[in-house]
User: Fold these one by one.
Assistant:
Number 1:
Amino acid sequence: MARLKFATVWLGGCSGCHMSFLDLDEWLFDLARVADVVYSPVVDTKEYPEGVDVCLVEGAVANEDNLEMIHKIRQRTRVVVAFGDCAVTGNVTAMRNPLGGAEPVLKRAYLDPANLRPQVPREPGVVPPLLDRVLPLHEAVPVDFFLPGCPPPAARIKAFLQELFAGKAPQLAGANLKFG
């Protein structure tokens, strides 16, 4: 059997989903037997590769860099998984949406509390331009599976990946995974 090309990505979120993924502990050795981790915050790879089989995407699409990245992921990945509640619904990351766009957020973060030379950093490469509205993944690109939780527990991640890597379509129902 050919080895799977597996990736994880962290967009606008807190990294809690990746912490839960690392809670897979010894099962990560089992994962390494069937898949190569070709891109992840825990791997020193700078460019998202072509031909990825499965990618878990944590976080919402909150800025222009996130939007560019999710489009690249979708183009280069066979199965895209919205990983955790921020990716699935926007969750905490989208709490700024009712504020009416990026400018009120930037003003509150950079101008209101400033004592000396208040300014919003606008130099390219300093702060990626915020989108006016934070998007869950499925509003930016087609998503193949949704793995909810804040964060999803390690047991749910393991069960989901075992089914997916076995060529089955994982079914999510209620608080637990249900497999047919």
Number 2:
Amino acid sequence: MVLQRTTLIPAALALTLLAACSGAPRTTFQGYVEGEFVYMASSQPGRLEHLAVTRGQRVERGAPLFTLESIDERAVRDQARQQLAAAEAQLADIETGKRPPEVAVVAAQLTQAEAAARKSALQRDRDEAQYQSGGISREQLEATLAQAASDAAHVSELASQLEVARLPGRAEQLKAQARQVEAARAVLEQADWRLGEKSIAAPSAALVYDTLYREGEWVASGSPVVRLLPPQNIKVRFFVPEPVIGALTAGRKVLLHCDGCAADVPATITFVSNEAEYTPPVIYSNETRGKLVYMIEAHPTPADAVKLHPGQPLEVQLQ
């Protein structure tokens, strides 16, 4: 009877009993799938104007996720653009000096003053000759000389004014206005950034695991609206006993077996914990060491990760 019952034991169970009797180390362990979610939020508050995705949808990198109301941000951006344009126009005006009509007025005044100076110079020459012959008094000659000198000085003054009118603004004035332009440009960049924060896109290809708001609801700054699960953020956790931990290192290959999977999924160990779990609160001994387990993490490739689901139990086989 005993021999007959022994022959009825399944082959897999017989192999397991044989391995247990022979002391062979285990190579298969229980594990589960875990996902590291990416919570997409805006740094700016606002009413949810448009939710572009639904739960369970897969999106590519750069795909729009949601948009918040941005009336105020657009107005601020437009105002910043106008202020920058005004600052740049003022800088250009300072760099070019006076306007052409203003320069033309000074040039005309100079032409008129030069004609008056020539007339005064001729009168001076005549009066000097008349004075030598006794035809005019000393007082009349002095008056003529003074007028000629005044007209010549007026020409010099207007010539200097014309030269200054053609010059750009002073160096310090130019520097101050250039800084005004830089400040206006920085305000515009800040306004553009705030407006951009009202429309959030996917940072990478991912599964839309959940949506946390509905259109029309108010969203506070920093509150997640969409929860994403990129395939590279899917990992497997399993625990191994203390006798096995020494043989495991990052980079070792494992196979993942799950119910309903068409085939086993390969994965690579990426993390080996240095801390024991479920450690009994006593001094280690040969009897208690077998109760120590260590957490191991493994990542499948992104192409295989989409086959797994967070919370899913599976078996991990060491390679």
